[in-house]
Amino acid sequence: LGFNQPPFIQFFENPLLRKMQSLQTLAKFGVSAVSTRCLKRAVPSCARFNFTLPALPYAKDALAPHMSAETIDFHYGKHHQTYVTNLNNFVAADKSLAGKSLEEIVKTSSGGIFNNAAQVWNHTFFWNCLTPASSSKAPSAELAAAINKTWGSLDKFKEEFNKAAAGQFGSGWAWLVTDKAGNLKITTTSNAATPLTDPNTIPVLTVDVWEHAYYIDHRNSRPNFFAAFWKIANWDFASSNYAKRK
User: Fold this and answer.
1) pLDDT digits (tens, 9 = 90+) for 134-192
2) CA separation (Å) from 107 to 95, 117, 118, 160, 184?
3) DSSP character for 134?
4) Strands 202-208 and 172-178: what pairing?
5) Spatial separation of the C-alpha atoms in residues 66 and 207, rounded to whole Å
6) Count of Cβ atoms closer than 10 Å to residue 200 Cβ
7) How far is the C-alpha of 85 from the C-alpha of 79, rounded, in Å?
8) CB contact burial 24-45 (16+ within 10 A = b; e otherwise)
9) Which pTM does this prediction carry?
10) CB 139: neighbour CB atoms within 10 A?
């Protein structure tokens, strides 16, 4: 995918309010036609991009029993949604964010803005790394060859990936990434940090190691969570990311 513009990140702009570039223009439409919040800033917040929680690519119970619908309800419906809501609040309060894509915000921000934007991106990527067990096939021939070249076998790769993910202290993510030449490596990031900020690194696959990702189904056992993860890993998605690295 390359992720220069993830197709699964959704954002919308109000086509009417897009034309309102100043308070003078707003006046032409009448105060009653727009939210009064728009009048508090030179650039109306409601004229900017509003990010939305992307739809899951499967039903919320489709990953069971490896990931329960209850986990999806909390992880996706509450945690992921909160990051989206927080990001929209930041966008509404900061005119410098007007019109920026999610990736642009992730790559150019810091602090709370970065944390929430990056978590929106990371989580959306993570949901696409999963698929119902019946659809979890195998890596493409190209990706499998790269994995074998680096780790010797798919099983050895999983072992090393699990080790890195389990060793991530506190909250964060474990990633399979590649460079444009196709060289694979395993890396971890803390909290909201993401490989997206490295122009030489392309995310291929990830697993969320924040406790809210696994505590409902597996309590405090990350190893059990990882065992379940591999049964629903979306190798088609990972293979596509690897193929489009060039």
Assistant:
1) 999 999 999 999 999 999 999 999 999 999 999 999 999 999 999 999 999 999 999 99
2) 17, 9, 9, 29, 22
3) G
4) antiparallel
5) 14
6) 10
7) 10
8) eebeeeeeeebeeebeebebbb
9) 0.82
10) 21
